[in-house]
Amino acid sequence: MRLLHTSDWHLGQNFFGFSRQYEHQQFLDWLLITLKQESIDVLLIAGDIFDTANPPSSAQQQFYQFLCAAKLALPHLQVVIIAGNHDSPTRLEVPTPFLAAFDMIVIGQVNRQQQHIDLEKFVIPLRNAQGQTEAWCLAVPFLRPSDVPRVENAEDAYLEGIAALYAQVTELARSKKEAHHALIAMGHCHIVGGKISQDSERKLVMGGVEMLSSTIFSDDTAYVALGHLHLAQAVGSEHIR
Predict the structure, then answer these.
(1) Nearest 5°: phi and psi at 181?
(2) Looking at 111-120, 148-157, 166-175, 191-200, which range is the least confident one?
(3) Nearest Cα to Cα of residue 3 among 77, 93, 91, 71
(4) What span, in angstroms and rounded, lies between the C-alpha atoms of 213 and 199?
(5) Quick one: pLDDT band at residue 197, thresholds 50, 70, 90?
(6) What is the model's pTM?
(7) Could you give the CA distance from residue 9 to residue 230 in angstroms, rounded to a whole number?
């Protein structure tokens, strides 16, 4: 099974007043070619698909045209998309019924049922070209303070709440997996030790309070697909990228 991890497309962005739609289209054209050349089974998009919570229609059309082209080129392709801090969690999930029919899963918001977080939403089976499950994806979107579970006597309710949610989702995935299945985690967050791109056109809002320890990902996780820092790198361990 072959997976391709990407993030932070920021479609719809204007760079000092200039539209970047042409640049974005060049990237999407390259990505489509790469998916075909590398015979990718699963495309992981780790947040910030759009630059704003209310992206222009042209950016949305650009995104969905790419997804259609990718599915036509690779009929067996699965796509897993999580929301980043720039995305609207609810807006991103609007086309869920249509995308799900094409093996494309969008995880934007945290849902609760009688005050309990719906963990099943975050655990997604990943299949190979023959349709056999090979891995389980822990697809956790960007988490806001109201999204995380409450941790009693926590020194930092937000960070410890995120860690608790990942632990709960991991445990659920373990209960579903067979011995030969891999665990793949996704997130849109800043892990301690991560380097911020010096070429970013604007300062990312970062601070110690927002940094998470890489220990929130269990040792049996085969790969962690992160977004947010705009710089390809390993963080804490070679498989956390």
Answers:
(1) -80, 145
(2) 191-200
(3) 77
(4) 25
(5) low
(6) 0.91
(7) 9
User: Sign (positive/negative) of CA torsion 188, 9, 99, 94?
Assistant: positive
d(CA 222, CA 137): 10
Q: Answer for the pair 185, 224: CB distance below 8 angstroms, yes or no.
A: yes
Work out the angle between the directed axes of helices 57-73 and 21-37 (0-180°, nearest 10). Answer: 10
Report which of 113, 224, 229, 101 is spatially closest to residue 170, judged by C-alpha positions. Answer: 224
Cβ-in-10-Å burial (0-12, 13-18, 19+) of 181 comes to middle
Instruction: Report the Cα–Cα distance between both ends of the chain, in Å, rounded.
Output: 18
Strand ranges in 59-206 using DSSP code E only, listed in sequence order: 78-82, 104-107, 112-113, 116-117, 123-127, 133-139, 182-188, 190-191
- Predicted confidence at residue 198, as pLDDT, reads 58
Amino acid at 2: R
Secondary-structure percent of the chain, ordered helix, strand, coil, rounded to 5:
30, 25, 45
Q: Are 232 and 241 in contact (CB under 8 A)?
A: yes
User: Which H helix or E strand runs over 15?
Assistant: strand 14-15
Closest CA to 51 of 90, 80, 87: 87
Query: Which H or E element spans position 211?
Result: strand 211-212
User: Count H helices, E strands: the chain?
Assistant: 5, 14
